[in-house]
Design brief:
Distance between the termini: 40 Å
Low-confidence stretches: 1-39, 190-207, 264-300, 512-531, 614-621, 972-1000, 1209-1251
Oligomer: single chain
Protein name: STAS domain-containing protein
GO cellular component, one term: membrane
Pfam families: Peptidase_C97 (PF05903), STAS (PF01740), Sulfate_transp (PF00916)
GO molecular function, one term: secondary active sulfate transmembrane transporter activity
Radius of gyration: 40 Å
Subcellular location: Membrane
Structural class: alpha+beta
Mean pLDDT: 74
Shape: flat
Number of strands: 16
């Protein structure tokens, strides 16, 4: 142990450093004398959380003018708990148990050899003084200060410097300085209600205990009760054994006396006999004494004792069998059988007959009174079937019955009940339909299956492969078990996933026992190890799909253990499946030691599988391609079920009603016939379902693509638009295959906003002529506006009235979905759903109504509106686009067509990708793979051009409808064509109703082309213009200009400039100008890095200048940086004041930069000045050695070596550091801590070592 005085001293900040040194000196001496010091140590880790979840790295440069990798919150993990500091004081949770969930980084600080009692005393001391509740300050006294203090105490090493310096970096920015007083006031207000001195232990009282804490207490109490019961039973057994031993001794004594008398009488009567024969007889008797004694003991044993001995022998055999297999995962204490049975009676009160009430009593005797299975009558399973399948009964009754059966599954004789179920298969049929039951019934049902693995007999029963028919399907026990396991594992419920994990784990452990040759003789027929060859692949697919998420460590361990078992039993199928589909198990390396061991086993098997393929010689290395990377359908397809199908059906119909009228309108906007809009609508949906990654995106014609198509194909025929789609698709596909998705990051949001607003204005102006029924031609936007104003008096009254009316109706219907119905009854719900459907289907409703009006007027001989005209019916032919065409008797070759399209070949794919990424960022729940979106759009446009499609991409309006409609997956309309890709139990066939109504936009468009095209003739053009105007009017965002002007005038100028250029000239010029402005700004930041110089004093005699560039060093910034360093050195450095350049931000360096730094070093040497470089990473050092002369550079490891060189042997070396900015404005900085590196260098100096 450690003296109490040392622990007390550690609470005092003034002597904490000295006490830490003293404590660590003693610990090091003790560790040197220990042979197993590592085994006694406790690992100390630092959990690093990013409070912005990655947004700081993306937005910090734009918001505060400085790049930040994250806003760090840290916690120390030691002795199995996570400790952190906040406004409430010091708190502790289980590792990773905070609201921040899993940390972004886990850094190992070191090993501590302090006893937990010392640490507990120390942490309580901190909690009442330095880190008490109410002392928290966001910048000066935060969680990172606490972890620094505790880390130094435990292992003598602090946390990384970049975390401690984060507040200083923020305060150095103008934004940080402006917000500092406000944050200080908020921080004081948040901690004003706390009392300083409140103990750390008391702070735990007001928080709820974790589930693990409550479970542990319950297990401890149960263990105590079991220990008492075991002790009483042991005493009874000892008394019985002592009594039996006394009886045995008496019997042995009587037997010996009787044998001696009989042998004496026989020798007297018969005389001497053959000695050899006598010796053999004696040896025979001597060889079997125990057997004879056992027979005698068994003959005189009481019947009750004999039964007890037989039961004990049977239990010993069962225990031996259980020891040969891994313990299964079961759920013992999750159900209170007495409470469940009481609630079960209440729920069924008055609904059961006498026989069924008798079955309830039998269940009570079997579960609560521990009677044998003989207590369950012949009608018990009929009663269970009635509860399961009688839907007039409350679902809670089925939940109660399943919970009671979960307890029964743990009993040794439950196998007798299961054997009775072989006649009607009541229980197993109900389990097979698990996906049709509500979630509250699925949970106890999966738990029941998991608990059946507790006993060998019932677990073997689950493995039977004998089949029966259920709903025209052949199923068996193993198929039912597998389906329950897979469905549970891939469900959305975490509790159900835990049950699925347990079932798969138990199945894998059963395989190990089945492969034991000695135990195979004990297995019933039909329960053989080969069954795993059939289901291992299916279970592996489910596990790999489960690994795409973020499972908890306990569930991850069980699944990884199961996967390791499956790789051992299935030959090459499972390893090949892992390599083909992924993800690799190695992605979870580092979660825990036991998981790492399982990953090593799996990787060993994978390597063995690869080696077996190379028996003919070493095969060339090939890059493994993951199917799910290029076809995300394989990620979500195994989870597809009928509930998602119904949701997709509703969303598909809704999107189809939106897409059909929009497609016709967009084709008109692009200067094409209406059928080309429909041609562009149906194929994209099918392809995006396979290759797309964002479920809300619906591929088809859009206003942006229509206006760009019109821009680049004006005055030509449809062949140019089709070729443009083909070439755009090729560009997109090539960019995606080269993983150039990062290119869209060079287009900022302000530029995108200006471009979108400009195209919206262009679309609205271009549709005004159709809205008013005018026939005008103009080549520019301003020309169109002039001619519309000039011919406004010639507007057709019918078109104008209908168009304006349609716009008003569309805008009103758009707001209809936001109407809140106070009535919560069924009638109110129906009204609310009706309003919602009318709102999202407003385009189809308005087009249909106006078309009906136009039809009847046209039949009566009146045509007050301009109609769309004839639309060619039928599906388009499949053929490659034409690479030559004729327009106005002029023939265009492929090169001439490309020349006419011009920059559109680049602009169109770039804009389409940008639109898809923007939609994905709004609606996607996770990260967006821009390269995959490029590949998908490329495939859609290339194949779409083969069916006469114009360029396509996603649309905000359709995506918003998809999201509001509750879409679940990108899968739309092609279920019956792709269902064979998944195993039968992973991907279950949907019901007939779901298949009939699962109509998607693609299918609805095909139906429209096949049957509805004759009626498109009657669609008024003014209605299509109204649809377009009401759709794009909300894409204009002028409020962002005012916001940008207040926050970033550069972004505001980029937005305004892009908008004006698009309006005055053309859209491609505006977009290119915006992109160029962004790239120029980024180049400027790279060429003109921000530099902060720090004046440091090591003591009264020694000073040095610390210069920190905020970005890396490459050739555009070399001269600027060298001149800046030279200016600072000329003004403030001297022969005794070295200049230290902190190269921590240098991630790489090129040839020009190396030569520039060499020249800088040469200039410093000529001026008799000192220039040092610190914090150079090995990559930069290697580049300097390769590209230049490394000997010319004076490189130190870090700032600690600088201080050590300047201080010499001065062990006090307190370093007061002060930031001096370029404007000579002093900003206070914290005191530089005494670093372990400095102390080690000073120690070397005191020993006479020379640097």
């Amino acid at each position: 142990g450690f003296p109490t005085t040392i622990v007390a001293s550690l609470r005092s900040p003034g002597v904490a450093t000295a006490a830490t040194r003293l404590l660590w000196s003693g610990l090091i001496l003790r560790a040197e004398n220990m042979d197993d010091a590592d085994e006694m140590g406790t690992t100390v880790e630092l959990f690093v959380y990013d409070l912005t979840k990655g947004m700081a790295a993306v937005m910090s440069q734009m918001l505060i003018g400085r790049h930040l990798d994250g806003i760090w919150h840290t916690a120390v993990v030691a002795y199995g708990r996570e400790y952190f500091f906040g406004p409430l004081g010091i708190q502790s949770v289980r590792p990773g148990g905070t609201e921040l969930q899993e940390p972004q980084k886990v850094e190992k600080i070191g090993q501590t050899y302090l006893p937990y009692s010392v640490f507990w005393e120390y942490i309580n001391g901190l909690g009442t003084s330095k880190f008490a509740p109410g002392t928290y300050n966001l910048f000066k006294h935060n969680c990172n200060c606490f972890t620094e203090e505790v880390s130094n105490f435990l292992v003598g090493t602090g946390i990384p410097k970049y975390i401690l310096d984060l507040p200083e970096e923020i305060l150095q920015t103008p934004v940080g300085q402006a917000l500092f007083p406000l944050i200080e006031n908020l921080s004081k207000g948040a901690t004003a209600g706390f009392t300083v001195g409140q103990r750390f232990v008391e702070a735990r009282i007001h928080r709820e205990d974790s589930p693990e804490y409550q479970s542990l207490n319950s297990e401890i109490e149960q263990a105590r009760l079991n220990s008492i019961a075991l002790e009483e039973k042991r005493n009874v057994i000892n008394e019985k054994l002592a009594k039996k031993e006394r009886k045995k001794k008496k019997k042995d004594k009587k037997k010996r006396d009787k044998s001696s008398r009989e042998s004496g009488s026989e020798s007297n009567s018969t005389g001497p006999t053959n000695c050899t024969a006598m010796a053999d007889g004696e040896s025979t008797v001597a060889e079997m004494p125990s057997h004879a004694n056992g027979d005698a003991q068994g003959a005189e044993m009481l019947p009750s004792d004999r039964i007890l001995e037989m039961e004990a022998e049977e239990k010993r055999e069962q225990e031996e069998l259980k020891q040969r297999r891994d313990p299964p995962i079961v759920f013992r204490d999750h159900v209170d059988p007495a409470a469940e049975l009481e609630q079960f009676r209440l729920l069924l009160q008055g609904k059961l007959d006498e026989n069924e009430m008798l079955s309830v009593d039998e269940l009570h005797q079997y579960v609560l009174e521990n009677e044998g299975s003989w207590a369950l009558g012949d009608n018990f399973l009929n009663f269970v079937g009635r509860v399961f399948y009688d839907k007039t009964l409350d679902s809670k009754a089925r939940v109660c019955l399943l919970n009671i059966l979960c307890i029964a599954a743990l009993k040794d004789d439950v196998i007798l009940l299961l054997h009775q179920d072989r006649r009607e298969h009541t229980i197993m049929n109900f389990a097979y339909d698990i996906d049709r039951h509500p979630l509250e019934e699925q949970l106890p049902l999966a738990q029941f299956i998991a608990n059946l693995f507790e006993n060998l007999s019932s677990s073997e029963w689950l493995m039977y492969i004998s089949e029966w028919q259920h709903q025209n399907q052949s199923i068996s026990n193993i198929r039912v078990t597998t389906k329950v396991a897979v469905h549970s594992l891939l469900s959305e419920s975490e509790d159900l996933q835990t049950r699925g994990t347990a079932i798969i784990h138990n199945l894998a452990c059963k395989e190990k026992m089945n492969k034991n040759i000695g135990l195979r003789q004990l297995l019933p027929k039909g329960s053989i190890s080969k069954v795993f060859d059939d289901v291992a692949v299916e279970l592996t697919m489910a596990l790999l799909q489960y690994f795409n998420g973020t499972p908890a460590e306990e569930q991850l361990y069980a699944c990884m253990k199961s996967l390791a078992r499956f790789t051992q039993i299935s030959g090459q199928e499972v390893p090949q499946l892992i390599q083909m589909i992924g993800p690799e198990p190695a992605k979870f390396r580092g979660c825990s030691q036991r998981i790492d061991e399982l990953i090593d086993q799996i990787n060993k098997k994978l390597l063995t599988s690869k080696d077996s393929k190379a028996h003919a010689g070493p095969a060339p290395k090939r890059r493994r391609i993951k199917v799910s990377k290029y076809a995300p359908i394989f990620k979500w397809l195994p989870k597809y079920n009928k509930y998602r199908a119904v949701s997709d059906a509703i969303a598909g119909i809704t999107i189809g009603l939106t897409m059909i009228p929009q497609s016709i309108a967009y084709a008109t906007l692009a200067g094409l016939s209406a059928q080309y809009g429909l041609y562009s609508s149906f194929l994209g949906g099918f392809l995006y379902a396979i290759f797309g990654g964002v479920r809300e995106i619906s591929i088809g014609p859009t206003s942006l693509m229509a206006i760009l198509t019109l821009e680049f194909t004006k005055g030509t025929n449809p062949e140019f638009a089709i070729l443009l789609a083909f070439l755009a698709g090729c560009i997109e596909l090539v960019m995606g295959m080269l993983d150039l998705g990062f290119l869209v990051d060079f287009i900022s949001l302000p530029v995108t906003s200006g471009f979108t607003s400009a195209t919206s204005v262009i679309i609205i102006v271009s549709q005004l002529k159709g809205l008013f029924g005018l026939k005008i031609q103009a080549s520019s936007l301003l020309g169109q506006m002039y001619k519309i104003g000039e011919n406004l008096e010639n507007a057709k009254m019918g078109d104008t009235i209908m168009g304006l009316t349609c716009i008003v109706v569309l805008l009103c219907l758009r707001k209809l979905k936001d109407v809140k119905i106070a009535d919560t009854s069924l009638r109110g719900v129906i009204i609310s759903k009706t309003f919602w459907f009318l709102s999202v289907g407003r385009n189809a409703l308005v087009v249909l109504t106006c078309s009906v009006i136009s039809f009847y007027l046209h039949q009566g001989g009146q045509t007050p509106f301009a109609l769309s005209g004839q639309v060619r019916s039928g599906l388009p032919g499949v053929a490659f686009p034409s690479f030559s065409t004729s327009v106005n008797n002029q023939t265009y070759s492929f090169v001439e067509m490309c020349s006419h399209l011009g920059s559109g070949i680049i602009i169109v794919p770039l804009v389409s990708v940008l639109a898809n990424i923007a939609i994905a960022k709004v609606f996607a729940s996770g990260s967006v793979n821009a390269s995959q979106e490029m590949r998908t759009l490329g495939i859609c446009n290339i194949l779409g051009s083969c069916v006469s499609s114009m360029p396509t991409c996603g649309a905000f309006t359709r995506s918003a409808v998809s999201h509001a409609s509750g879409i679940q997956t990108p899968f739309a309309g092609i279920y019956s064509g792709w269902s064979f890709f998944c195993p039968s139990s992973v991907f279950q066939p949907l019901s007939i109703i779901a298949e009939l109504f699962h109509l998607t936009p693609g299918i609805m468009t095909i139906l429209a082309l096949s049957f509805l095209t004759p009626y498109f003739f009657y669609i008024p053009k003014t209605v299509l213009s109204a649809v377009l105007i009401s759709a794009v009017i909300f894409l204009m965002d002028f409020r962002i200009v005012q916001q940008l002007w207040r926050g970033s005038k550069r972004d505001a100028v980029a937005t305004i400039g892009t908008f004006i250029i698009c309006i005055v000239f053309n859209v491609e010029a505006g977009l290119l100008l915006g992109i160029v402005s962004n790239i120029v700004y980024l180049l400027y930041l790279s060429a003109r890095p921000s530099i902060v110089d720090t004046e440091c004093t090591a003591n009264m005699e020694h000073k040095y200048l610390l210069i920190r560039p905020d970005v890396g060093l490459f050739f555009p910034a070399v001269d600027f940086l060298a001149n800046k360093i030279t200016d600072i050195a000329d003004d403030r450095a001297g022969p005794n004041v070295p200049v230290v350049v902190d190269c921590q931000r240098f991630r790489g360096i090129d040839y020009t930069a190396v030569k520039g730094l060499e020249k800088l070093v040469k200039d410093f040497n000529e001026k008799d000045l000192t220039l040092w470089f610190i914090n150079l990473n090995p990559k930069v050092v290697k580049s300097i050695r390769t590209l230049g002369d490394l000997d010319k550079f004076k490189i130190l490891k870090n700032e600690a070596e600088v201080v050590a060189l300047l201080c010499g042997l001065d062990k006090e070396n307190s370093v007061n550091v002060q930031i001096v900015s370029e404007n000579a404005r002093d900003i206070p900085m914290k005191i530089l801590p005494s670093m372990p590196e400095v102390e080690s260098l000073l120690a070397k100096g005191s020993n006479g070592e020379q640097r």
